[in-house]
Structure formats: C-alpha cells, structure tokens
C-alpha cells in the first residue's frame, strides 16, 4: 500500500480551507459555469472543482459525475495539491504506476486521463483542483493548459468573493444587531425621560400641595373659632327663643285683649308667621353651621395628613364603619329609592396602614359614589341605584378595594381634573372638591399604593384603591 501523499504545510492548508467555509455548501452557478467551461475547453466528459479535506475530496461543482465526494486516499487531486505551482497531467493512468491499480481507474468512473490545476490561495495554499477527466487517453495542448490554469485562478477568485460576501452579510447582521441595541437603548432612555417627567410633575404637585396645605390649615384654623362660637351659641339661642315664645303665649293667654299699640305692632310684624318662620331659620342655621364644620374638618384633615402610626388593620371593618356613618344616605328618600349595596369581600389579609386615613378614603369615594347614583336617578331615571364594594388580593402582597357605582360616569372633559384639589363638578354647597385629592394623597403618598378609576358614560365608575399589605 502506497503512502498518502501529503503537502508539507497540511495543517495550515486545512486551516486555510476552513477559512472559506465552503465544504458541504450548496452548488452555486458561479462555480458551475467555470466547471462547464473547463470541460468544454478541454473537450472532456468530466470536470470537477474538487476540494481536498482532511480525509476526503469534496466536490463543490462537477460535470459528468454523480458522486459528491470520494475518499482522499491516493487520488489524483490528493497528488495534485502536493505541487501547487504545477499542473498534474496524467495522459494515461494505466501506464502510470502511481495510479494504474487505483479503483477509480480500474473500475467506475474509469479515469484514464486526468489534468488538475491546483486551486492556490493568495497565501500559497493548494486547497484542491479544477480538474478535467476522460475515460480514454488524452493530451492537452499548451492553450488548453493555459486556459485550465486561468480558470483555476477564477475558481479561487470565486471563493474569495464568496467569503467576502459572507463577511459582508455578517457585518450587516452585526450592524442590524447594533441598530436594534441602539433602538432598545433609545426606548429605555425615552422611558427614563418619561419617568423623570412624571417625577417632576409629582414634585411640583407635592410642592403645590404642601403650600396649599399651609394655606388651608390657616383658613381652617381661622374659620374654626367663629363657627364653633356660632354653633355653640345656637342651642342657647334656641332655648332663649323658645322661652320668649312661651312667655308671649302666656301673655296672649292671660291678656287676650291688649291695648291698641300692641295690637297694631302684632299685626305689623305678623306674629304667627314670625313664630313659625323662626324655627325654620334656626334649623337652617344649624344645618349651615354643621356644614361649615364638616368643611373645616375636611380642610384640617387635608392639611394634617402625617399624624398617628401605621397599624395592622382589617379593611373590611373600616369599610363597615364608614358604611354605618353613611347609612342615612342609603335609605330611600323622596328623591330616590334606597341605594343597593353589594358586598363582595374577598379573603384578604390585614393591612399595615393609617386606619383613620384609609377610612377617610372609603368615606370620600363612597360619598362620591352615592352622589353619582343619586344624580343618575334624577337625570336618567336610574331605576336601581347600586354600589358594589369588592375586595381582593390584586397581586402578591397587594390588596385592592374596588368601589363601583352605576351612576352616570365621569365625563371625559373633566377626567383630567378629578384629583385636583378644589375641583368639583357639583353644585355650590354640595361639593368642595377635596375628597379625591385627599384620597390620592393618602393612598399614593402615604401608603405607596395606587388610586385609579375606570369609567364609562352612563355605565358608572369604578375606583380601585390598591395598597401594599406592608
Ligand atoms: N363616582 C363618581 N362618579 C362620577 N363622578 C365622580 C365620581 N367620583 C368623583 N367624581 C367627580 O370628581 C369630582 C371630584 O370629586 P371630589 O374630589 O370628591 O370632590 P367633590 O365630591 O367635593 O366634588 C366630582 O365633583 C365629580 O365630578
Ligand atoms: Mg367627594
């Protein structure tokens, strides 16, 4: 058995071949054209672009042959690459002792004539051959040899082109990747910018709130004393007037016929109307001062939100006690049937929070819901005013209280303002526009929660109070 002929630089040669990443790729017209041309010029039935791998010949392109690869041992091409600067021409293999007994010669495809031009890279490695083959003895003239050699150089050019295109493609895909990364970074930057803007808005808002807080605290304080003074004295006034009226009645009883002057005066001031109206006036003064006190209380709560400590609280109890206070507003009245309350309490844990503040939130939002359904009864004849209170775990470590009404919803044009302090859409005397802004402060700033709402025209509004369990 003869030794496999090996080029001196075999290891580096294989690395060079590897560099082109061409083995086992699909046929390409650029190579096929050159192979056909070689067969045509040399008038042989077979032509091949054959690349010599470590243990096989692999055919990138071929004419007149079925196989795509053969074992490397002792082949013509394996010999040809050992002499990169010369062509290997075997006019008659049967008369050449190197090949005479080779199975490719003695059996199919019966190679008798072989001419292989080495495919030599610019740095001197013979990667394979462009070869022409015939089944009978042949000679090549000098023009045919020159043509085959220049075609082999074209094959190498084609391989260079190929690798350059691959590199270019890789480059492009790298660029696309970079572009994508850039786009991602851009997106993140935009998000950060957005967050910054939001923070800025929040800062401005909290700055506004704190100066507003001072103002409001001052006003509340100033109003508080005179109102208490009036309210405190109203009951005395009530008693005194009752006493005076009593006295008057006694006079009328025991002196049914007073003198002319008294009779005239009694007629002028219309005593019976005066007596009747006096009690009306007193009760409206009572209602009025109570209302002022309520307002003062909200104002004080508004400006004094930092007090007391967080405790573990059962939110359901808070909701229940708030409902108790609001019960009188749920009962049926001349203006509306009773308001139905649907409770869907979930299995929620106790929550670490400022209990009185959370109650204030429930109070504000439930009052708004009652206002909304009352209004819908009047304006759109809502036959079944109702409010649904649902509690649940919204995500790990967060609970949510959802308060939904079937009122008229929040009109789109005021949606941006409902959380603004002193924004109200209600008639003078009914709303002061602090409920939601206080609630927002409590839920978002004091409890790191969220306060959001969903609303649909004529389909009601749902407020979602979400706070962390701790
Ligand atoms: N459940 C609701 N349905 C419809 N509108 C609502 C609801 N809750 C709040 N609003 C709107 O938000 C405004 C602000 O509410 P709030 O801050 O509590 O002030 P007020 O109740 O004193 O008007 C209300 O005037 C109303 O226009
Ligand atoms: Mg309100």
Record keyword descriptors for this entry.
binds magnesium ion; single chain; five-stranded mixed β-sheet; 470 residues; 13 strands; Heat Shock Protein 90; alpha+beta; binds adenosine-5'-diphosphate
Structure commentary:
The structure is a single chain. The protein is an alpha+beta fold and 470 residues long. The protein has 3 domains: 10-140, 2-Layer Sandwich (Beta-Lactamase); 207-302; 311-468, Histidine kinase-like ATPase, C-terminal domain (Heat Shock Protein 90, 2-Layer Sandwich), CATH 3.30.565. It is 52% helix and 18% strand. The chain is built from 10 helices and 13 strands. The protein has helices spanning 10-19, 29-42, 76-80, 103-106, 142-254, 260-269, 271-303, 315-330, 355-380, 435-446, and strands spanning 46-52, 56-63, 69-71, 88-90, 113-120, 126-134, 311-313, 340-344, 351-353, 386-395, 398-405, 450-456, 460-468. Strands 3-2-1-6-5-4 form a 6-stranded antiparallel sheet. Helix 5 (142-254) runs antiparallel to helix 7 and helix 9 packs antiparallel against helix 10. The chain is rod-shaped. The model has no long low-confidence stretch (mean pLDDT 90). The chain binds adenosine-5'-diphosphate and magnesium ion (MG). Magnesium ion (MG) binds at residues 364, 367-368, 431, 435.
């Amino acid at each position: 058995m003869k030794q496999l002929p090996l080029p001196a630089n075999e290891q580096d040669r294989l690395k060079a071949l590897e560099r082109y990443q061409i083995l086992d790729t699909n046929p390409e017209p650029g190579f096929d054209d050159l192979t056909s041309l070689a067969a045509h010029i040399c008038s042989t039935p077979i032509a091949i672009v054959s690349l010599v791998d470590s243990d096989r010949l692999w055919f990138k392109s071929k004419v007149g042959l079925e196989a795509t690869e053969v074992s490397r041992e002792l082949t013509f091409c394996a010999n040809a690459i050992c002499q990169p600067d010369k062509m290997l021409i075997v006019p008659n293999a049967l008369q050449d002792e190197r090949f005479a007994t080779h199975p490719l010669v003695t059996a199919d495809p019966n190679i008798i004539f072989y001419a292989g031009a080495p495919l030599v890279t610019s740095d001197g490695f013979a990667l394979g051959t462009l070869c022409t083959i015939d089944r009978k003895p042949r000679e090549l003239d000098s023009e045919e040899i020159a043509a085959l050699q220049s075609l082999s150089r074209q094959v190498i050019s084609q391989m260079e082109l190929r690798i350059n295109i691959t590199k270019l493609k890789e480059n492009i895909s790298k660029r696309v990747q970079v572009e994508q990364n850039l786009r991602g970074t851009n997106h993140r930057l935009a998000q950060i910018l957005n967050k910054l803007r939001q923070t800025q808005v929040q800062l401005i808002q909290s700055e506004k709130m704190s100066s507003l807080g001072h103002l409001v605290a001052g006003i509340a304080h100033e109003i508080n004393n005179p109102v208490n003074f009036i309210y405190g004295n109203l009951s005395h006034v009530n008693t005194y007037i009752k006493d005076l009226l009593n006295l008057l009645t006694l006079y009328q009883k025991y002196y049914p016929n007073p003198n002319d002057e008294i009779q005239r005066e009694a007629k002028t001031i219309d005593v019976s109307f005066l007596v009747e109206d006096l009690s009306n006036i007193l009760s409206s003064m009572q209602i009025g001062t109570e209302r002022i006190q309520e307002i003062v209380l909200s104002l004080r709560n508004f400006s004094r939100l930092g007090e007391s400590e967080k405790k573990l609280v059962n939110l359901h109890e808070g909701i229940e006690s708030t409902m108790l206070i609001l019960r009188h507003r749920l009962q049926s009245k001349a203006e509306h049937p009773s308001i139905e309350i649907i409770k869907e309490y979930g299995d929620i844990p106790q929550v670490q929070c400022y209990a009185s503040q959370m109650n204030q939130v429930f109070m504000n939002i439930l009052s708004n819901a009652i206002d909304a359904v009352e209004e819908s009864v009047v304006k759109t004849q809502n036959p079944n005013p109702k409010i649904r209170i649902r509690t649940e775990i919204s995500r790990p470590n967060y609970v949510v209280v959802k308060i939904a009404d079937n009122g008229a919803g929040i009109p789109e044009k005021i949606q941006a303002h409902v959380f603004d302090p002193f924004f109200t859409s209600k008639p003078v005397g009914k709303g002061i526009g602090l409920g939601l802004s206080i609630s927002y402060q409590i839920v978002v700033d004091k409890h790191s929660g969220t306060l959001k709402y969903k609303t649909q025209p004529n389909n009601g509004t749902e407020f979602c109070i979400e706070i962390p369990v701790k």
